[in-house]
């Protein structure tokens, strides 16, 4: 199941601290990451060599309880968006749909998933987390002619630039965690929310310790509206299990 893919491995250009595991095109980065997370160390990055998808998963080792450690998901989303933005053509927007869908230039590009040890209690520190991403690189059905943002190449990327996203993600992820360690979670939340369209003008938003989205208007007298993080994460609304990739 594990294969070399030497040309793609060179293109990934991972920073120090990451260990690459390369899989054939029929494999699943998220499933493989979950399978090896108990033995592999932090920074292990599983990459699947596919033409039509950018697909990878990274193993993390948090140092706080599961209930708050899951917020690493938002650091991963930011790193993915920053990696896309670093390589995309000018004036193309990267945005989110709560909590896990990634949009590019007005179309759904893909999304992210998060896994953790099933036996871990909310207030225990998990031995690992797995953050995984799928992005549509090339749409073989030519849907990009209708909505350009539905694939990277359809949105103006070169093939070499789609290969570079994974390595760029790793560098942005390290930067995000450094920022979290130095300044707390607030900068991570702010960067994520900046890419999440508001439902109402003037809406105030934040991310709770358990990952839920909190939103209210300045004149509201009651508590903020709460949108569940875990419920929506479990839905993975962007993912098509039949296609084993982002929904069309």
Can you give a write-up of this model?
It is built from seven helices and twelve strands. It is globular. α4 packs across α5 (159-183) and α4 (72-87) crosses α6 (186-194). Strands 1-2-3-7-6-5-4 form a seven-stranded mixed β-sheet, sandwiched between helices. The protein has helices spanning 6-12, 29-36, 66-69, 72-87, 159-183, 186-194, 229-235, and strands at 19-23, 44-48, 53-60, 94-97, 101-104, 107-115, 129-136, 204-207, 213-216, 225-227, 239-240, 245-246. The chain has 248 residues and is of the alpha+beta class. Mean pLDDT is 88; it is low at 1-10 and 142-149. It has one domain (6-202, 230-246): Bira Bifunctional Protein, Domain 2 (BirA Bifunctional Protein, domain 2).
Strand order of the largest sheet: 1-2-3-7-6-5-4
Structural shape? globular
SS summary, helix count = 7
> What CATH architecture label applies?
2-Layer Sandwich
The overall number of domains is 1
Question: CATH top level?
Answer: Alpha Beta
Largest β sheet strand count, sense and barrel closure: 7 strands, mixed
Subunit arrangement of the protein: single chain
**What is the CA-CA span between the terminal residues?**
28 Å
Helix-strand makeup class:
alpha+beta
How many strand elements? 12
Helix content: 25-40%
Question: CATH topology, what is it called?
Answer: BirA Bifunctional Protein, domain 2
Q: Approximately what portion of the residues adopt beta-strand conformation?
A: 15-25%
Q: Please trace the helix and strand order, writing H or E for each element.
A: HEHEEHHEEEEHHEEEHEE
